[in-house]
Amino acid sequence: MLKMCRWMSWKTFRDVGLRSTGNTSSGQRTFQFLALISFSLLLHLVWLNSKSSNSVFLRMGTKMESLILAQPNSPLQYPIQGFVVAPLAKSVIPGKTLSFTVKKGVLSVEDVLDGDQVEGQGKSNLTISSSSHTHLNDLLSRVTYTSTIYHVKTKDLVNYSFEDYEAIFPIVIKRSSVPVLYDPGIDINSQVTITTKTFLRYDELNILINSIRQFYPKIKIIIADDSLEPQNVTGYNLEHYIMPPAQGWFAGRNLAISQVTTKYVLWVDDDYIFINNTRIESFVEIMEKVPELDVVGGAVGRNQFFFRLQYEEGDEEEGGCLRRLHGRRIQSVPGFDGCFFVDGVVNYFLARTDAVRRVGFDPFLKRVAHTEFFLDGLGDLLIASCKGLSVGHQKKRKQSKYRRYRFPGQKDGRNKLAHHYFKNYLKCIRY
């Protein structure tokens, strides 16, 4: 208990029990969280927050967002990146030591005194004059910017000049986003949910479930099922969601992922089988040590399938070209032998739940799809493939009805190509 207290400031303890709820002048109900939860639960939540928030903020923030000032090689010093303001709110522009012009806002100098030579207060063009270098820098330190155009994320450019010197620097106008934290969990059962999509293969599905329970008796399993004649599937900590018949492969993946409440989700196919080398903990260890990672793939049997995507952007008249390069890796993951960055992995991977939801699975793709998820996540998801993380593959059974859906023929392939041409604006694709 004392160890958890270290993450709470004295002010937090002091305020516990003193916060109250009530109605505002507009009649809205105000809820002060600290007054509505028990002290013991508060300690637990603060502990969870301290564990999860550091990695979340590391994932959300980048060095490109840090405030950097241009050094005054000319008489002008100004911010060259990292100046972020809230829409329609006044903010002091940092780091200037010397007229300003903007397009999406207005400029002003705070606390102007008699005798200060400032022209253009509250307008898009501001001129400051002074015969004293010290006085001029004092005025510059009080220059503010207020956007006049509302947008959740846009930017403005400030034209900054003095005598024959000119400079331009950006201002990012951005609404603050609220972090979404997941309970980091105390063991593998509270950290990971296993998800799968099934269609007509109940024998294989039951073998998969039994093998999972052999190694992970309590972990949650979520099944999305669009079989033509659904059968009942039950078990401890198991959720079975029935879909409309033959709704499709990616639609089922979306459904399964939508029900996950843990930080991580492990995707498996319904004909896999857990073996002695199936260690979910190893996946989690990698993800925890490299919080920027979104997806880590393993191997199915001896098949450690992975690939790179080579994308050449097109122009306005023609779309781009995409090429999938099998077995090509990008770079080793620092600190992990046998792990390397790639653009796509096999259908056995651990992913951060929020990252998978952010990209999603295109429900247009009903029968045959895999690369498409990684294509949609290209440039957004950081993906790695690691050796030593394996799951077994059951022996194939003869299932003529299943094969008719699994291998739909040339028409489905042509529809997919047309879909790629429109959705991803591709004029050519090579698998």
From TrEMBL:
<feature type="domain" description="Glycosyltransferase 2-like">
    <location>
        <begin position="197"/>
        <end position="314"/>
    </location>
</feature>
<dbReference type="GO" id="GO:0019276">
    <property type="term" value="P:UDP-N-acetylgalactosamine metabolic process"/>
</dbReference>
<protein>
    <submittedName>
        <fullName>Beta-1,4 N-acetylgalactosaminyltransferase 2-like</fullName>
    </submittedName>
</protein>
<dbReference type="InterPro" id="IPR029044">
    <property type="entry name" value="Nucleotide-diphossugar_trans"/>
</dbReference>
<dbReference type="InterPro" id="IPR001173">
    <property type="entry name" value="Glyco_trans_2-like"/>
</dbReference>
<dbReference type="Pfam" id="PF00535">
    <property type="entry name" value="Glycos_transf_2"/>
</dbReference>
<dbReference type="GO" id="GO:0008376">
    <property type="term" value="F:acetylgalactosaminyltransferase activity"/>
</dbReference>
<dbReference type="GO" id="GO:0006047">
    <property type="term" value="P:UDP-N-acetylglucosamine metabolic process"/>
</dbReference>
